[in-house]
Specification:
This protein has 751 residues and is α+β, with helices and mostly antiparallel strands. The structure holds beta-D-galactopyranose. Beta-D-galactopyranose (GAL) binds next to loops.
């Protein structure tokens, strides 16, 4: 029953907090025409204010990427826009107008024609306590006199940026009238796809109402299509009804013709208004064959250690257990456990030690040449591991870390994954009487935890800030750097992520290069004094072009960007803009475009399946590997689904990332939304990524000339994800890629 009167009044207040996730299409686009100015003046909200001398700016990317590097503090965006009354008149439910302004880093106030219509002030309520990673969706009743129908309106957005990236950086933009379908959620996230035999896939979806009064009836259309040819492989229509406490749940089953990308679309057609709401999702497809039962040694060819530092390396090997390990020419001060493949000990003398690793099972054996380099550098290839932030955020605990460590040891370590890193949220509120940092009650025994992780052959990471407080508001290391480094070493840590955060209050307002470097040098010296192999990972979002000097402060990696999130906008905005820092990468020193957003993520405590489509996830891992980027898994590893596990355990793809030459890919072509990135590998071959940045399938072509291989035009191609040879090809290679999809090739001269 439609009870519009009650319905509207109930929602007048509620809708401010219920930003629809799957609302109807935007009625008015607001993507173009924004003006921008740094600074802060109350008069900038006024419609009559002249912004003609303000700079144009794009929304959907931080201002740092648009000519304002390192700018923190206040800035304003303004837009002149006509709001046609037709959008009001054609709406079925004459309810409220909605302004979708995407995500804003960090806080915002939004003015319509000079008066405040919305603010994100986080828990503190003020613009300075705003939360960057939230959709801004502000609504007004249609009768509100501040809306100038069919005339010019001025939307002015006052933004406060604490640190790192700033501005209207990502998300959904537009002006719409809330309609019936805005109160429907098509929930696809609670249940993953289930894979049966013979390419059978099933999926449970549910439709929920967030209206306390509206009983929905209508039809649900389910279709599954090949995104490249457009052909529909499954179609079903159901008559359905549901209400607030009575969701409609349904499990559909489909047989997929091939092992490739397919898209499922769920369209709800509301019975009375005839309005439609659609959600499309990609169906996971597993490309990589299982590793053979015969033994294989995976992982990098080199490993660095400081003289006399405790050494820990677990030989990554696949094959049916039990496996037995051996290492010929292993220096006498190192010991290999033949059952676990874990090497421990120390090396005193600098030098390159060439070792022959071998592993055997009842089906055969495998060997691999492996070089241990004892010297001034560690982390010779990008770190592969897990970090708690993108899943657990500040709710990380000993128990959650152990569960992930166990999962890594059981399922991922055989492919070279080796770091278990605790991010923010482990610190106690106070230091002890001697100023020593303490872990909080979620980590009752840090040393015990590190011992446990080490016993699995994995290494352990921790997090702090050079400022007095971390970004999560916990204690930082300011003026306790030596003491903290000593504590990390005593607990047994092997990795430190050091995050600028509140150091912004210590550094001058316009930091010089020296100011940027200073806190990182202090900690570098403190870490060096511990004598441990501690990977040093800088997190300061790329300020002061950190890629140009990160190696001078002893960093093994440095974040080049603000935080990633699990959207295509964020992933592609970061990943495809890494070419300018690429030349500064070298063995032991890597650009870090931030952690992986695959699997179940959520920034704690509740998690959801990544919002990236399967194709986008293949693109994510391909691009990070081509860039020689550290890869830190950001999901709950104790709940790894088959797709995510497969995505993270392709040894040919990981080998691209871990190639000892450490030469990141360069973009050799960029046309019609197709980009080609080429990475030179140590054996003289090339890794090549063909990427489709378009929202639709698109043909892509690799011209062999762009590879600059001396052998000319006849090349042997291999598909890394499928681990399949594509044969010898001449001149060029063509393929049609699904939206946001990739083909990752390894290419070498044909003999
Ligand atoms: C951010 C950092 C994140 C995470 C967080 C912890 O500044 O970029 O990766 O570490 O702080 O509070």
């Amino acid at each position: 029953m439609l009870k519009i009167g009650v319905f509207i009044s109930c929602f007048l207040s509620l809708i401010l907090f219920f930003a629809p996730e799957t609302g109807s299409a935007q009625d008015v686009s607001i993507l173009q025409g924004w003006k921008f100015k740094t600074g802060d003046q109350a008069g900038w909200a006024a419609p009559a204010f002249s912004d003609s001398d303000w700079a144009p700016i794009k929304i959907g990317a931080p201002w740092e990427a648009q000519g304002y590097p390192g700018y923190n503090g206040f800035a304003w965006y303004r837009l002149h826009i006509t709001i046609p009354s037709a959008i009001r008149d054609k709406s079925f439910l004459k309810d409220r107008i909605r302004f979708d302004l995407g995500k804003i880093d960090d806080g915002d106030e939004v003015y319509l024609n000079g008066s405040l219509i919305g603010r994100n002030g986080g828990r503190g309520g003020t613009i300075e306590s705003g939360v960057w990673d939230q959709d801004r969706s502000y609504t007004l009743p249609l009768a509100d006199s501040r809306i100038h129908w069919d005339q010019d309106n001025v939307i002015a957005v006052r933004v406060w940026d604490r640190n790192g990236d700033g501005g209207m950086y990502d998300g959904k933009y537009g002006i719409s009238i809330n309609d019936v379908t805005d109160y429907v959620r098509i929930n696809t996230a609670d249940n993953g796809f289930q894979f049966g035999n013979n390419k059978q896939v099933s999926k449970k979806i549910s439709l929920q109402s967030v209206s306390p009064t509206y009983d929905f009836t209508g039809r649900l259309h389910i279709s599954v299509a090949d995104p490249i040819s457009g052909s529909v492989v499954f179609k079903q229509t159901l008559g359905i009804d549901f209400a607030k406490d009575r969701p409609f749940e349904y499990t559909y089953k489909v047989s997929l013709p091939e092992n490739k990308s397919y898209q499922a679309t769920y369209t709800f057609e509301e019975g009375r208004s005839k309005k439609q709401l659609s959600v499309t999702e990609g169906i996971p497809f597993i490309l990589t064959p299982r590793p053979p039962a015969t033994p294989r040694i995976n992982g990098a060819d080199v490993f660095g250690t400081y003289p006399n530092a405790p050494f820990l390396y677990r030989v990554p090997a696949t094959g049916e257990g039990p496996l037995t390990y051996k290492a010929a020419s292993l220096p006498a001060t190192l010991k290999l456990d033949p059952q676990t493949g874990i090497i421990t000990g120390t090396l005193a003398a600098k030098g390159s030690y060439k070792v022959k690793l071998s592993v055997r099972n009842k089906l055969g054996s495998a060997t691999k040449n492996f070089t241990i380099v004892c010297g001034d550098k560690i982390g010779l290839t990008p770190a592969l591991g897990w970090n708690s932030w993108n899943c657990w955020g500040l709710t990380v605990s000993d128990e959650k870390v152990r569960a992930s460590a166990k999962a890594m040891a059981d399922r991922l370590a055989s492919h070279g994954w080796s770091y278990i890193n605790i991010d923010d949220g482990w610190e106690n509120a106070q230091r002890d009487a001697d100023g020593k940092i303490l872990a909080n009650s979620k980590f009752p025994d840090m040393k015990g935890l590190a011992d446990f992780v080490h016993s699995l052959g994995l290494r352990m990471g921790i997090y702090s800030s050079p400022g007095p407080r971390t970004c999560g508001g916990y204690l930082g290391s300011y003026q306790h750097e030596r003491q903290d480094a000593a504590s990390y070493a005593a607990w047994g840590f092997d990795y430190l992520k050091y995050d600028w955060c509140s150091y912004g209050e210590i550094a001058p307002r316009d930091p010089s290069l020296e100011d940027y470097q200073k806190p990182y040098k202090v900690m570098q010296e403190a870490l060096a004094s511990t004598g441990r192999n501690i990977i040093y990972s800088l997190c300061q979002y790329g300020m002061g072009d950190v890629w140009k000097w990160g190696n001078q402060v002893g960093a093994n990696s440095w974040r080049t960007t603000g935080d990633i999130s699990d959207t295509w906008g964020s992933l592609s905005g970061i990943g495809f803009k890494q070419d300018h820092c690429a030349p500064y990468t070298e063995p032991g020193h890597f650009n870090d475009p931030d952690m992986l957003v695959v699997g179940r993520v959520g920034w704690g405590p509740s998690l959801h399946d990544t919002r990236l489509t399967p194709d986008e996830q293949y693109t994510h891992i391909s691009l990070w590997s081509l860039l020689s980027a550290p890869m830190l898994i950001g999901c709950d590893m104790s709940r790894l689904d088959d797709f995510t596990l497969n995505l993270l355990t392709n040894d040919e793809v990981i080998a691209v990332d871990q190639d000892a030459l450490a030469k990141p890919a360069v973009r050799v072509a960029d046309q019609d939304g197709i980009q080609v990135w080429v990475k030179e590998l140590r054996d003289g071959s090339r890794a090549v990524g063909l990427f489709n940045l378009n929202d639709k399938a698109h043909p892509a072509r690799l011209d062999f000339e762009t590879l600059k291989l001396p052998s000319g035009q006849k090349l042997k191609l291999r598909d890394c994800w499928r681990q399949q040879d594509l044969g010898v090809q001449k001149g060029s290679y063509s393929v049609t890629l699904p939206a946001h999809g990739v083909v990752l090739l390894r290419v070498k001269a044909a003999q």
